Predict the structure of Helix-turn-helix transcriptional regulator.
Amino acid sequence: MENTIKVERAILSLTQGDLAKKIGVSRQTINSIEANRYVPSTVLALKLSDVFGKPVNNFFKLSSDD
Protein backbone atom coordinates (compact mmCIF):
# COMPACT_ATOMS: atom_id res chain seq x y z
CA MET A 1 0.00 0.00 0.00
CA GLU A 2 1.21 3.48 -0.83
CA ASN A 3 0.15 6.72 0.82
CA THR A 4 0.47 10.48 0.63
CA ILE A 5 0.05 11.15 4.35
CA LYS A 6 3.21 13.26 4.50
CA VAL A 7 1.93 15.49 1.69
CA GLU A 8 -1.54 15.81 3.21
CA ARG A 9 0.01 16.64 6.57
CA ALA A 10 2.21 19.32 4.99
CA ILE A 11 -0.80 20.90 3.26
CA LEU A 12 -2.35 21.42 6.70
CA SER A 13 1.01 22.51 8.22
CA LEU A 14 0.86 19.70 10.77
CA THR A 15 3.86 18.01 12.35
CA GLN A 16 3.82 14.26 12.86
CA GLY A 17 3.18 14.98 16.54
CA ASP A 18 0.26 17.29 15.75
CA LEU A 19 -1.38 14.70 13.52
CA ALA A 20 -0.74 11.95 16.07
CA LYS A 21 -2.53 13.94 18.78
CA LYS A 22 -5.50 14.61 16.51
CA ILE A 23 -6.09 10.91 15.84
CA GLY A 24 -4.93 9.50 19.17
CA VAL A 25 -1.73 7.65 18.24
CA SER A 26 1.99 8.16 18.82
CA ARG A 27 4.25 10.22 16.57
CA GLN A 28 6.12 6.99 15.81
CA THR A 29 2.91 5.49 14.43
CA ILE A 30 2.54 8.41 12.00
CA ASN A 31 6.20 8.00 11.03
CA SER A 32 5.66 4.27 10.38
CA ILE A 33 2.55 4.92 8.29
CA GLU A 34 4.35 7.56 6.19
CA ALA A 35 7.29 5.19 5.65
CA ASN A 36 4.92 2.38 4.57
CA ARG A 37 6.08 0.17 7.47
CA TYR A 38 2.61 0.07 9.04
CA VAL A 39 -0.84 -0.23 7.47
CA PRO A 40 -3.35 1.54 9.71
CA SER A 41 -6.61 0.02 10.84
CA THR A 42 -9.87 1.08 9.26
CA VAL A 43 -10.60 3.23 12.32
CA LEU A 44 -7.28 5.10 11.99
CA ALA A 45 -7.79 5.53 8.25
CA LEU A 46 -11.22 7.04 8.88
CA LYS A 47 -9.80 9.36 11.55
CA LEU A 48 -7.19 10.52 9.02
CA SER A 49 -9.99 11.06 6.51
CA ASP A 50 -11.76 13.33 9.00
CA VAL A 51 -8.60 15.36 9.67
CA PHE A 52 -7.77 15.76 5.97
CA GLY A 53 -11.39 16.26 4.89
CA LYS A 54 -10.92 13.76 2.06
CA PRO A 55 -11.98 10.18 1.33
CA VAL A 56 -9.51 7.51 2.43
CA ASN A 57 -8.78 6.45 -1.14
CA ASN A 58 -7.47 9.96 -1.87
CA PHE A 59 -4.40 9.35 0.30
CA PHE A 60 -4.12 5.51 0.39
CA LYS A 61 -3.61 3.53 -2.81
CA LEU A 62 -3.07 -0.16 -3.40
CA SER A 63 0.32 -0.95 -4.91
CA SER A 64 0.95 -3.61 -7.54
CA ASP A 65 2.07 -6.14 -4.91
CA ASP A 66 -1.05 -5.77 -2.69
Notes: The beta strands are 2-3, 60-61. The chain has one domain: 2-57. The first strand starts at residue 2 and ends at 3. The helical segments are 5-11, 16-23, 27-34, 42-52.
